[in-house]
Amino acid sequence: MMSFVMHRIGGLLRRYGALAVVSMLCLVAVTGCGDPPVIDNTPPGVTGDLKVALSTVPDPPTREQSTTFVVDVQDAEGKPVEGATVTLSTKMVLMSHGGIKGELVEKGDGKYEATGAFSMGGTWRVEVTVTGARGSPTPTTGKFDIAVK
Fold first, then answer.
1. What is the pTM assigned to this prediction?
2. Which helix (H) or strand (E) covers residue 29, if one does?
């Protein structure tokens, strides 16, 4: 397969010059990640009744290395929220790469944790959803952008 591709590139180069090769490489770069990107244009932030903060260890995360996500959940008065269900999902911004998904483990004092690894460097959107919290009948969602090395 690779020799066929190299033969085709060589033929295009002889026939059409560098323009053809550059065009072909651009096509590969654009389509190489699979499905077209679904761009989330909503700004990062938190919607809902609760205060949600996200931190990572290490900060900033490094691709293909273990990252611990720490989510701090507080009520409107700043008191820790315990007993909630906290989920997290990641998606690479401007690309169609999905990433880490799952439920975080409650650690006490309103803190929830999970561990995962980003597949590549770049900007990732981390979406945290908090449900089942006392005093908050509706889910709270936090969207955070993280730069991964």
1. 0.71
2. helix 18-31
